[in-house]
Amino acid sequence: MAKVIHCDCNTIFRAETNDQLVRIVKDHVRLVHPERTDEYTREHVLRLASRLVSPAVQGAP
Length: 61
Ligand SMILES: [Zn+2]
Hints:
The chain is 36% helix and 16% strand. The chain contains two helices and three strands. The chain is globular and about 30 Å long. 10% of the residues are buried.
């Protein structure tokens, strides 16, 4: 089941597995929001993640 996260900076991440999602989000936070790396734990990332139930998400601006 694909999951999706919308970052505060309007970046959208999609991944097929929790591990992949956590990895890409943490990489992004480290590069773009380095002051928030402590906040984006694995638990936090997975709590933010929503299941991708329809392709409508891809239509986001
Ligand atoms: Zn971001």
